[in-house]
Amino acid sequence: MQRGLRSFIIIWIGQFASLFGSALTRFAITVWIYQKTGSATALTTGGFFAMAPTFLLLPIGGALADRLDRKKVMIAADLTGGLCTVFMLSLYLNGNLQIWHIYLTNVILSAVEAFQYPAFTAATAMIVPKEHFARVSGMRDLAGNASRIFAPLLAGALLAILDLSQFMIIDLITLSIALLTLTMVAIPKPTQTEESKRAQANLLQDVTYGFKFIWKRPSLVILQSILLTLNFLYTMGNMLIPAMILSRTNNNELILGSVQAVMSAGALAGGLLISIWGGSKRKIKTVLMAQVLTAIVGRVWFGLGYDTLSWLLPSFFVFFFIPISNGSTAAIWLAKTPPDVQGRVFATRRFAAQFCLPLSALLAGPLAERVFEPAMMPGGALASLFGNVLHTGVGAGISLMMLLSGIIGAAVSLLVYVIPLVWRVDEILPDHIAEPSSLIPEKTVDSDVGVKAPEGAASPAD
């Protein structure tokens, strides 16, 4: 096994441990909020606070990732996340934990991710050879999605015997494991390229550099615009899935955990597939195929469900194709961007594809509770049109939102096949050949890699 891949696997083991603990705690907090409030808006508001700071700070985080020691940036990010967990734990043990405390913690963690994400992503190109970029991206997705297979099922069962504080303690233990694996890995710092030398400036100019880099490449601009549209549509449904299932199953946490576990199993299978396969030679072909199938086989089919049996099979495909798309998208960007400016460019790339997510999360709850849910109650404005397919009553309006997002998403994805600038992006933009750590003598290697990559496949498209 090449040394770069071996180093990445060590990090991957730590990520899996930490993300598993985080997934347990996140599930327990989601149930705690819904049982305390009974409100879909309360859940989606939490999602807004968990996303908005990330996208506001991403350009700054990317600029600093190219200026500072990336390893130290990610250690600081993980330690800050641990302190947030300790903060909530102390409040809960004293009987003082409130919803707004969780919102505040989400804001801090979201801000931290704006620095952690570009630092980790930029470090990846310095660990592994170019031919493994798509596979490594798939492995990063596996770190998050393997935890989602078992965590919802386990958390749903453990909620009968454990309280929220015990989930938080597990989260802190698994974070310690991830930090330990960091000490076992070293990678080189990137060699400064001509592209980077031309971009050298003050911090403000560094922040805008990523936008300029992408704007000069119309193929990437259009690709990110498409992903932005799809992310806006799909985030609404993703934020409302727990509320839909809990409302239609009389707050049955085990059913929610089972459906989420099947979704995560699909994401895991998709991540495993792209890790082994690596995608087609023309990566954009894999990206667009995966997005079309996500819309039709995943979103539309799942939206048609109305009970446990009708959710389980389609739920597997809700996230199955996402890591396939994300892995191939990451391979395109890693190949086209010089390593020493990847922090800035990748931060801007994520901002360009996902900056609408906080708005989508903020709108999801009110749209569900004030528009779609009333319209799908017996006698509602849309009940006669969709009631025979989706049934009526609580949760039916959210099902309709999921169905419509899939139909529109399929239309947007199919349009791409007639846009040559996107369809031929692999040929239009030249590759930048990076020198991976596996090809560099050991004595030149410097420790510069982080832990706990951002969660992948169940996350929005990159």
Tag the structure with descriptive keywords.
single chain; 462 residues; mainly alpha; Growth Hormone, Chain: A; globular
Description:
It contains 19 helices and no strands. The protein is an all-alpha fold and 462 residues long. It has a single domain, classed as MFS general substrate transporter like domains (Growth Hormone, Chain: A). α1 (3-37) runs antiparallel to α6 (164-182), α2 (40-67) packs parallel to α4 (99-124) and α8 packs across α14 (342-354).
Which secondary structure elements does this structure contain, and how are they paired or packed?
Blueprint: H1 3-37, H2 40-67, H3 70-93, H4 99-124, H5 133-158, H6 164-182, H7 194-199, H8 203-215, H9 218-248, H10 253-277, H11 283-303, H12 308-318, H13 322-336, H14 342-354, H15 357-375, H16 383-390, H17 396-415, H18 420-423, H19 425-428
Helix pairs in contact: 1-5, 1-6, 2-4, 2-8, 2-9, 2-14, 2-15, 3-4, 3-6, 4-14, 5-10, 5-13, 8-14, 9-14, 9-15, 9-17, 10-12, 10-13, 11-12, 11-13, 11-17, 15-17
Give a short overview:
With 462 residues, this protein is mainly alpha-helical. 75% of the residues lie in helices and 0% in strands. It has helices at residues 3-37, 40-67, 70-93, 99-124, 133-158, 164-182, 194-199, 203-215, 218-248, 253-277, 283-303, 308-318, 322-336, 342-354, 357-375, 383-390, 396-415, 420-423, 425-428.
